[in-house]
Each structure stands twice: as structure tokens, then as C-alpha cells.
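Model: Ready when you are.
Researcher: Fold this.
Model:
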Amino acid sequence: MPALALLGLLSGCGMVLLDPAGDIARQQSDLMIRSTILMLLIVVPVIVLTLVFAWRYRESNSSAEYDPDWDHSTHVELYVWAAPLLIIIAIGAMTWVTTHLLDPYRPLTQLDGDRVATDEVLHIQAVALEWKWLFIYPEQNIAVVNELAAPVDRPIRFSITSPRIMNSLFIPTLAGMIYGMPGMKTTLHAVINEPGDYPGVSGNYSGEGYSQMRFRFKGLSNEAFDAWIADAKDSGQRLDTARQRALAENSVDHPVVRFASVEAGLFEKILNLCVQPGQMCINEMMRRDARAHRGEHAPESGHGPAPY
């Protein structure tokens, strides 16, 4: 009965990692499945032979051959070493190839197994706050808290950072988990191939509100995505440095908030840790240090982030 109850609970799981809606996640799923099958080629025979040997050479089996001085068999050595070695080589080769093909910094070359990726890329800037996600769409000039949307079959380029604690962006149906770290920008390329409403989470423990650091990712048609953008534009709210500082305060289970416009260069200020008034941006500090190291005079400048 407990086993039946467990199966009943598992039947409600979406198994999203094994049946994703994005091509990158699908390739990662295929790699996991192929690697598991290859490993089972060793695991299953070992389990079976362990049971067979235990039964055949049990104490009560007087018909089994007894050879207390046996210490070597070329055939056994061949099977024990050659089969695992071949499987390790196969798994290593697959991992090496897919590590390069699925590099999160590598722009997409395909939408799925049959279609080539287009040059029309959707840029999204993701900021891990405590304990919520801020998504900025620089080309559409909007921002949304705890909600994300993208058109189906359009390549997505995420730029990810965090102003305080290291965190990680994880949308299981879309792609793998990528970290966001203070003062650093990481990148993820992905695509969603099927419309739907999918969960997104934080994949790195970051304190009290970690378990509620969730959001929804919507795969939409082009028309529905335009309507979603228009809905954000209708909010009338503006995201500037003052509002961002308020958002950065700790909060748990934060509701979805939409912003109709975003202050220019806000993501770069967050990335360079200079949202607070009077703070010098990291990139400006590094430029001054480099000039000082070369013996050059550092000209006076403001504290805002310099363009990339």
C-alpha cells in the first residue's frame, strides 16, 4: 500500500526535466537519458551477477565447484575492465561534445532539431533580488517582478546578475541553471518551443525567503507577447534607481509588479554596484586603477556607469 501511495503521488509530477519545452533543455535531457542507459549497461549486469553468484556459491550448494586457490581469470579481467572503460570513453565523448554545444554563452544555432535559429534575439536582463526576480526588457523598455515571458521559437539571451547574494536562475523546461553573482554578469542562451505557463525558481540557497523565490515563465505567441508587453506599458509605473533600491529590500512571496519604463543604464548600475547615491561604479574604479598603474592622470568624472 505505501508503494501504491507513492506511485499515486509521483503520477502528479510533470517530469519537466525529462519532457522539456525548450530545445536546450531537451538536449540536456537527452544527454541525461543516454548517460543513464550507458551506465545501466554496467549496473544491471553487476546486480544480476551478484545475485547469481550469491545463489550459485551459497554454502548449501554442494554441486558448485570449490577452488580456494583460484586468484585470476583473463576472461573476468577483460570483462571487468574493458566494458567500464568503453562506457567511460563513450560518456566522456558525449559530455565533451555537448559541453561545447550547450555552452550557455554560445548563441543558438538552431530552434530545434529541424530549424535554424534566426537573428532576431530577445534580450532579457535578470536580477536576483532578495527574495524575488526582476526582469528588465531593454529593447521593449519595460520591467517585471516575478514574471517572465517570451515568444515561442525566438532565441533568448539572458544577462544575469545579483546586487548582494549569489543566486541562480533556473527554468527547468527552458535550460540549465546559471548563477548570478554580485559585480559579475553571466549569460544564458535558450529558446522555448511550445506555448505554456512554466515554473521558474532559484536554484541556490540564499536565506530565509529562498523557498518562495519563484516566478512564472510564459511561452507565448508573437501576438500574445505583444499584448503582454502592452499590459506592462499600461501599468504607468517607472523603474528607476530609487524604486530599485526599494525592491532590493528583503521580501518574501512578492507579488507580480510591472513597470512601463526603465531608467536608462539601470542594469549596468546594478551590475557595477553603484545604485546607491554617491557610489563609484566598479567599472569606473577599475579604469581609474588601470590608469594609475600606467602612471596616467585620472580625469574627474561622475559616478555613473560608463558605457560598455
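Researcher: Now this one.
Model:
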Amino acid sequence: MQTTNNGTINDALKVPFQIPSIDSHEEEAVLRVLRSGWLTTGKETLAFEKEFSHYVSGGKDDVTSLAVNSNTSGMILAMDAMGVKEGTAVITTPYTFISTSMCAQHLGADVHFADIEADNYSIDPNKVEDILKKDSAHKIRAIVPVHIAGNVCDMRALKALAEKYDVRIIEDAAHSLPSKTKDGFAGTLGDIGVFSFYATKTLSTAEGGMVTARNPDFIKRMTTMRMHGMDRTTWDRYTSPRASWEYDIVEAGYKFNLPDILSAIGREQLKKQETFLDNRTVIADMYNDAFKDLDFIELPPNDDGNCWYMYLLRLNLDKLDCDRTAFAKEMQAAGIGISVHFIPHFHFTYWKNRGLCAEDFPNAEKAYQRTITIPLYPDMSVEQVARVVETVKQIGSAHHK
């Protein structure tokens, strides 16, 4: 999000990259909590978890949700519940935010990376199987696919691999609420799903996340580890007849809980998910219609269940006399807020020092070199969309070979 020093949206930007969709409902929800006398994890969070479970289960209520203070926290809990630790490993993609792999590193585990598909941003199941075939010591505990920009990975293929090689699946669903395929919502298709409620996400609580699972053993472990390894929640300690100071520490846990103020915002945001999705889809359709006949652009992947969290503008560099970086800088100079999703792991010093290199991931490197993320959020106006389209066309025309 583009901001000035006083914290307001930068007026110099004709179209900001992202603005959260907040109105009086979220404001009133926060005031309700502030006036209640209970600010940390309590009844609002319990209600948020229940409502989230109902939503992503399609009303079946066969999913349990645990609110956490970030997707990263949720990912650590999920990996821990699956026994990810020193001497084990996970498989994920190098084309994602760094936290996905770092969670495994924090737990002492190794990370194996599989390239993305040639014409998609999703992890390639064939590359995943290549890694699984080499796992003679059975160290790999989980496959961690990431649903980039709300476009769902090939979960059927990945689940078939998980069953064949006896591993689990943790879905990094940070981008994918409310992506829904024929098999259900993303984040409920594997063993554990981990969502993000960061400031720019489709459901925002400023910071926060949610973990979903059906396996009661996973839920029990994550519930305990979420709050210091304690056998009682704070809400239970202060609202039940049992003395508040009576509790036990049964594991070396973490401090990953979500406070009620943020949960109250999340409950209001959850009610708007279908409206938000409709608005984002309309904007994505406008972009697709405007760009479909431009030979210097390839439309982003749009598979079953895509929630259009982001619009990944893919440049056909063979038709341009500039690279992605120059194109992106000209868009910024024109007042369009943009970003790049993602810098692959092999471009970071930490992973380069551990042997990762671009040559081993040609699809991820190609995607990175030609992708720009352009504005897409529910409250974008038609005029703002038109301004983005006009700018892309002008820059493309100026640099067309």
C-alpha cells in the first residue's frame, strides 16, 4: 500500500496499488470490542472461527478453524503438527513469499523446491514427484502448494501424489479466499489450510490468519501450541468457574493467537466475501477484455475457482524493446501503484548461499522476469481501471518492436 508520512494514501498516485475495503461496519465492530472490556482472544475470536469454518466448509461444518496472528504463524503450527522438524523436509515452490519456506527452516527442517508449471504460477506436480521419488529415507513430511494470486493449484494431482508417497499436504491459501473449485474451497482440499488476513488480502484484519483442518489430532496439537503450550485458553481461564491461575504447560508452545479487535474486523469482512469476489471478477474481466488482443501481453492463468486476488500482468518481452523492470518503473512514474509477485527464492542471498540457482527453475525465472502485478481491489472505480489500461497500452505502444 502506498502511504505518505501522515499515513494517508499517497495523493500523487492516480491509482494506488491496493486499498482495503473498510466501512462503518468494521468501525462499529471495533468500537463494540473496545467498549466490551475484553480486547484479547475471546468470544469474538471464537465466533470468527466458527463462522469461518461454516463458510469454507460450504455449510457442512466439517472443518475446524483456528485464528492466528499471521499466515506465517499458522504455517509453523501446521508444519509442527505434521512432525516437521530437524531431520525431515517439506516440498514447496520457489515462486512465493519467503515465509513459506522459512517456516520449515525455523523448525529445523530442510526444504526441497519444485519448479512451477510452464504456463502457470502453480507448483508442477511432475517436479514434485521427481523429488518424492528420491526420498529414500522418507524424510519428506508435507507438500506445500501455494495458490498464487487466487488461482488454485492442481490439487487432484498433488493429492494423488500425497497418497502414493504417504505424505501430507499443507495448502498455503494466503491468496485464495474465497477460491472454490468443484471439490471445495481452497484451503480445505489438503490436510491443513493456512490463510492470511494481511492488510492487502481479500479478507483483511490488518494482520492475522486462519488455520483449517479436519483431523482432530492436528487441531489438538495446533490449539495447544498456539498459546504457549497451555492446556487452557485465556478466555476459558477468565470466564469459567475454575480458578484462572490453574493451568498446565504441556508443550513448548508459541504466542500465535488473534485478538478480539482484529477478529471483529474479520467477522465483518467475511460477510462481504461474495461481494468482494464479484467486484474483483468484474475488474479482472475488464482487464482481460482490454488486453486480450495486445501481442505484448499474455493474459494471466484463470483456472477453476480463481478468486482473482491479484492480476498478474504477463509481458511478452519478445515484442518489447524494454524489460519488465523498465516497464514497471514507467507505470510507477505515470502514477500507477504496482508490485512484483514474486521474487523467487533463488534470487535471495540466504537461499543462494544454500545452493539455489535460477538455472534449476527455468519456469519460475521466466515468470519473474516478465510479471507485473497491477491494481485490483473491490473498491476500484471504472475510471481507475481505465487509467491502468490506458497506461499499459501507452507504455507498450512506446516500446513495441
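Researcher: Key takeaway?
Model: The longest strand covers residues 64-68.
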